[in-house]
Design goal:
By secondary structure, the protein is an alpha+beta fold. It is about 20% helix and about 30% strand. The strands form 3 sheets. An 8-stranded mixed β-sheet has the order 5-4-11-12-1-2-8-6, with no helix packed on it. A two-stranded antiparallel sheet has the order 3-7. A two-stranded antiparallel sheet has the order 9-10. The radius of gyration is 29 Å and the shape is elongated. Keywords: Membrane, Transmembrane, Transmembrane helix. It comes from Methanofollis formosanus. This is Type IV pilin.
C-alpha cells in the first residue's frame, strides 16, 4: 500500500523564508550604504561673518560665531554688488590673496616664506587687510587694467573714490566652492 505524502504546507513556508532572507539582505545593503555615506560626507562649516571697509582704514573681518576654520581650508572671494557701477564692473570675482591678511595682533596669516603663521580663524577672531594691501593691484587685480602701455590705469577696485557709498560682497567658501558665509560690505571713505 502506498501512502500519499501531503507536502502542500512546505511550499508556503519556503516562500516566506526566502522573502525574509531577501528582506534582510536588502536591509543590510541599504544600512551599509547609508552608514558609509554618513562617514564620507562632511558638513560644510558655517560662520557668522561681519566686515567693515573704509578706503582710509582698510578691510576688517570679524568672526562673530560658528565653526573654527583652519587657515588654508577656505577662500575669501570679493565681488561687487548690484549698486557697484556698470554690469561689467559687477561681474568680476576676485579671490583675496591670503598673504595680504593679518590677525588682530598684526601677525600675517602666512609668512613670506610660504608657511602659515596663524593656524585658525575662530569665533572672536579678527582679520585685517591694510589700506596698502587694499589697493586694486594687490587685493582685486581683476578689477583694474591698463588697456595699452601708454593708457592710464583703469581702476574699478574698492579703493576708487567713485565707489564710496556702493558695496561689495565678501564670501567665505570652502576650497571646493561651498558657501560658508557671505556678507555685503559698504564702501566708506
Amino acid at each position: 500500500m502506498m501512502m500519499a505524502k501531503d507536502e502542500s504546507a512546505v511550499s508556503p513556508v519556503v516562500g516566506v523564508m526566502l522573502m525574509l532572507v531577501v528582506t534582510v539582505i536588502i536591509a543590510a545593503v541599504v544600512s551599509a550604504f547609508a552608514g558609509g555615506m554618513a562617514e564620507t560626507q562632511s558638513k560644510t562649516p558655517q560662520v557668522t561673518l561681519n566686515a567693515k571697509y573704509a578706503q582710509s582704514e582698510g578691510l576688517t573681518l570679524y568672526h562673530e560665531g560658528g565653526d573654527t576654520l583652519g587657515i588654508g581650508e577656505f577662500k575669501l572671494l570679493l565681488h561687487p554688488s548690484s549698486n557697484y557701477g556698470s554690469i561689467e564692473e559687477q561681474t568680476y570675482v576676485d579671490e583675496i590673496d591670503p598673504f595680504l591678511i593679518e590677525n588682530g595682533q598684526g601677525e600675517m596669516w602666512y609668512r613670506d616664506s610660504g608657511g602659515r603663521q596663524i593656524s585658525r580663524f575662530g569665533p572672536g577672531d579678527i582679520a585685517y587687510i591694510s589700506v596698502e594691501n587694499c589697493s586694486t593691484e594687490k587685493l582685486t587685480p581683476d578689477l583694474g587694467y591698463k588697456p595699452s602701455p601708454r593708457a592710464p590705469y583703469i581702476n574699478y577696485g574698492i579703493n576708487n573714490s567713485k565707489y564710496i557709498g556702493s558695496s561689495f560682497f565678501l564670501e567665505m567658501v570652502t576650497l571646493d566652492g561651498k558657501m560658508i558665509a557671505k556678507v555685503e560690505v559698504p564702501v566708506r571713505a
